[in-house]
Amino acid sequence: MSNDTPDSLIPYDEIVQEALRAVVGRVLGSIVSGGGTLPGAHHFYITFKTGAPGVSIPPHLRERFPDEMTIVLQNKFWDLEVAQGGFSVSLTFNQVPAKLTIPFAAITAFVDPAVDFGLQFQAAVEELEPEAHEDAENDGSDPDGDGDGSNVVSVDFGRKK
Q1: I need a surface site. Which of 15, 22, 117, 143 has the fewest CB within 10 A?
Q2: How many folded domains does the chain comprise?
């Protein structure tokens, strides 16, 4: 017998991640159906990829958190809505209200510290394209046509005789 585990043709990791994200949806849905307030000492830390498809956050938050952001649902949140693919919630940031829409696929962590419960997720979004940028000055062709186009400089540090 071999100790090598064969590659699975069934995407177990994806199935498990999807099921665990459904736990987040069910928990948030129970808060909505319970009147929109958290029971007891429960509160949630939800971390998500801000650049993931379907994420909608104000530009000033996207600028401040270009990759990942953690929100806290505890005392001051409202308009929590849960749909099959994600949720939206209104919160304040530095006393400025903001509505966020977050697909479950963008979530990377869900924690309820009141009961020491937490879930970690693999990013379920395609790798984000790097932001477009202008070409660096040395990336173009040789404008004078007198070189080979490289930017390598050769320096000889030999001793004088």
Answers
A1: 143
A2: 1
